[in-house]
Design a protein that fits this description.
Blueprint: H1 19-63, H2 65-68, E1 69-73, E2 76-79, H3 80-111, H4 118-134, H5 139-146, H6 150-167, H7 175-185, H8 195-225
Antiparallel strand pairs: 1-2
């Protein structure tokens, strides 16, 4: 009698994680992968931002190169700043003094409620144009020779009109002053000019001189009372 022994079978068992442990492991894996992905995305965004910034700077330099560069000499640049610095050394003080004076005049006009309209400015420019034409020149030629634009002239005339309105044109010239002027400048009287015409010219010139003196005194008064802080010296 043969007895067959039952063969023992061995089964390999894999240790299973509990549902809670599995969820925790999966969550940790997701967090880790998410952290890496976030870092990569941030790095890519940063690199992309730098690249865009570089492109923008290059475009600005190309489009507005005249803001930074005045000229190129055989491939070497002359910066606009160097030009400005040289000009400041030559006439910086005079220009700053002029700008300060204009500012004081406009401030005083505002304080006194003295308004300068565009029609006032246009009337003065019309006089200037007529005088230039009488001398055989034009307004555009005069502006070009002074390196000025019409906008610059507009601003200059505005200041002059404001001064005239505040100082006034009420000046008198005596007969003796006219006689003395005529006697001192008789040799300069142009041919064909009558004595009466020359006296009229003398009267106009004497009035202009007195107005100029009055204006100078007015500006000196403004400057003496003003508080001006200068942050550059020339």
């Amino acid at each position: 009698m043969v007895v067959r022994a039952k063969a023992k079978t061995t089964r390999r068992t894999t240790k299973k994680l509990s549902p809670v442990s599995a969820v925790k492991a999966q969550s940790l894996s997701i967090k880790t992968n998410g952290l890496n992905l976030s870092s990569i995305l941030k790095h890519k965004k940063l690199s992309g931002g730098i690249a865009i910034a570089i492109v923008v700077v290059i475009l600005l330099v190309v489009l507005f190169k005249s803001v930074f560069i005045a000229a190129m000499v055989n491939g070497e640049p002359i910066s606009r700043l160097s030009v400005v610095t040289a000009l400041e050394k030559q006439g910086g003080k005079a220009m700053l003094d002029s700008l300060i004076t204009k500012k004081l005049i406009l401030q005083e006009a505002k304080k006194r409620n003295v308004a300068v309209s565009q029609s006032d400015i246009d009337a003065e420019i019309k006089k200037i144009t007529a005088n230039l034409q009488a001398q055989g020149s034009t307004l555009d030629q005069a502006l070009a020779s002074q390196g000025m634009t019409k906008a610059d002239l507009n601003n200059e005339v505005k200041v002059q009109v404001a001064v005239t309105k505040m100082v006034g044109t009420d000046v008198t010239v005596t007969a003796k002053e006219i006689d003395d002027f005529v006697a001192a400048n008789k040799s300069q009287m142009t041919e064909g000019t009558t004595d009466a015409q020359f006296r009229d010219e003398a009267t106009a010139q004497l009035k202009q001189q007195k107005l100029q003196t009055k204006t100078t005194d007015f500006i000196n008064s403004l400057q003496s009372k003003a508080k001006v802080l200068r942050f550059v010296s020339y």
